[in-house]
Specification:
Blueprint: H1 2-19, E1 39-44, E2 49-55, E3 59-60, E4 64-72, H2 77-81, E5 89-96, E6 104-109, H3 114-123, H4 128-134, E7 137-140, E8 148-154, E9 161-168, E10 178-186, H5 195-198, H6 203-217, H7 220-223, H8 231-257, H9 260-284, E11 290-296, E12 302-306, E13 327-331, H10 333-354, H11 358-380, H12 386-415, H13 417-431, H14 442-455, H15 461-471, H16 479-488, H17 510-519, E14 520-522, E15 528-530, H18 533-564, H19 570-576
Antiparallel strand pairs: 1-2, 2-10, 3-4, 4-9, 5-8, 5-10, 6-7, 6-9, 11-12, 11-13, 14-15
Helix pairs in contact: 8-9, 8-15, 9-10, 9-17, 10-11, 10-12, 11-12, 12-13, 12-14
Protein name: Integral membrane protein
Biased composition (Basic and acidic residues): 567-577
Subcellular location: Membrane
Length: 577
Amino acid sequence: MRVNRLCASVALLLGCTAAFPMRTLKQLPMVPSLTQLPETIVTQASGNTTNIQIRNPICFGKESVLVGMFCIGATTEEEDKDPDHKLPRLTVKITRKDSSPPMTVFFFDDEHNSWDAFWKKNMMGRSCEEISKAAKATITENSMHAPQIDAFKNIQGKFSHNWYVVAVDCRDRKCPKVESINVSFFHPNTDGGTGTCSGEQDPMSAMEEAFLESWKAMELRNIMHVVGVSPFGVFLLYLNFAVMLICSFLFLIWGLRAESARRFLYFNTFFVTSVTTMSYLAMATGNGIQPLWRIKGPQGAVSWHYSQPFSAHLGEPQNPHEWKTLQTYPLFFGRHIAQLVTTPLILLDLFLITGAGFSTRVFMFFCNTMMTLCWMVGAFVSTPSRWGFWVFGNAFCIGVCLPMIGILPTAAARQGRSTRKLYGVLMCITLYFPQVGWPQLSILIYPWAWVLIDGAHGRVRNYMSSRTTLFLLHPPASVASLVLVVPITPARSPFSLSLMAVPVRVWRHPAAERASTGIMGRRPSGEWVLGGEEEREEEEECECECEYEAEAEAAEEVETVGLRGNKGSEQELEQRD
């Protein structure tokens, strides 16, 4: 049996090999046949000089010879002033065969991505004139020194980086026939190895560098510098972070001091403000923001693109990076993530006060989540297809607003007049129209606010940065924040209810206490249960029985008093009893 299984396994492997053949040499990088093995000799002439000798070098890509890769350390201003004695230097002497055509030597580095540009152009069969545009230095063969090239290059840089030396046959675009290569590498600021450029550091040096970078980042100039956002916008983000942090501490303290009946409402609001606090901190530090860059394509076509890591370095004021001149739009994805987490908790507060049914809660939770996701995805999509997500977000927005206007007020009225008034205040604050009294208008206003901000992206940088920052301010921050946001951007979300905008006395309202004790009630065993329709029906039946018993006792008492008022004897009263 084992032999049969082994044979079956072998047959299966052979079948897989036939179905998926191994790569041939045509699919792999072409390497010419080696008639003579390459030979490399490295000698240390001194502590700062390394000599490298190469015999019979190998061609790469069938068109070029890689002379070597060298790690150049960061240079100082003092070294730059004396380039002949203190700067790193590469001295190259390359000898070719007499019968071969002349060759050209190119110097590249990875500080300005010239090495990547060379490989792209070289592999695409570009001419040497195009390759020389990407090179840091180009050395051609002189007829007086033929058949060899003898040259040197002084190198400087602001940080450690690699340099590459390549020999190319520009006439026939074939691999140059190099016999020998002699390189003298003078490295006064490194040990000549590649460890400095590879980023390898000892733990103490890495810790010291991280500490210095963190301390430098705490400077006001660096704190207020966030790509895509104006300094005024960053200031507003830090301001709201501070306000929301204070609100979180206040709700936590009030929740710990409150009675058990009201404690859940305080803690639920504490969760909302805490998540919002962290989202503001992320956006203020630039971690919750993704800049979009407006780039003009061929024939005047305009498109928005996400920034690359190198675009975050906008250069110096005297020598700005080309990305700094482009129009930017800050995509605050931290705001959308905070909405996705906090809006269900805000709706939960409304449900606890009104005592809405289970089906209403599930429907509104679903519509709220889908509305936030649609508008968040639409903000991330830079193509015109984002308007489709905007349309679906509007549909789910209507699915949330209609129950808030029609179903929840009815449920609040059943709880009593005080609960109905409390819900009216919270609903107006949630929908941002306490002064108008027409919460239905928020369905029409917020989608258009999204169109002008997240949808259009069509503003100049500073104006758009500050306006977008104001647009994402939560009224949870304070009443002043609510007054600031409403006139400028009518609504940030139909449910940006911040319970900090409501006075603290709201949670001390009798309706809030009844909501906590009635909807989050206790059974005789002490277990917390979520009140539903069955519990409310049982409570109504108990109330009816209690009222009936009270009326019967009152009638019996009236009858007894009336009999005692007559002149009958005590025996008659006893008989009547």
